[in-house]
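Many introductory courses stop at the sequence. We go one step further.
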Amino acid sequence: MQLDKKTILAIAAAAVLHSALPNSAVAGVPTEQVRQTADKVLQLLQDPRSKGTSNASQRREQLRQILATRFDFAEMAKRSLGSNWQKGSSAEQQQFIRLFTDHLEKSYIAQIESYAGEKIIYGREAVEQDQAEVETKIVTKKSEQVSVNYKLKSAGADWKVYDVVIENVSLVNNFRTQFSRILAKGSFAELISQLEAKSAGSKPDRS
């Protein structure tokens, strides 16, 4: 249950980067809400009161709260299991969501904290009923571009991210492949045990 280093960095960077809209007139609500979330994260990282090791716990909790406003981790968890979602009991499903969310949040936050001034450009937005996709490109310090597209669904007045597609690779599909391999040989309880072990042993990776 590993996220590729480039994948984590790209997702995390897209959550914190200085942003530019090539044509703000065509930016709709989904794009604007993604941008607002990025701005909040960047503002927190730049706040002197949140910097330093002594403020790490408080800073990471604030980052979790910001991410939770835009990412529907429960929906991502369900989609990452696909049809295997039904194999778990109600209690197991809720436990899986909690562990999956914890795993993603720790991965994101560790990389967000290593933000080094990359930039993001917002591109095309496609909206169809209650579904939307926001296309972005991350521009690295070496002027390399990485495509990071967000898939969102309507949730009242908000748009929530349920998948991230990096260089045409879906985060949800990537996890689904990993989880399917585990469940092909073991039970839902064994999958949860592996996630628990991963959660217990994970620490912020600043490398």
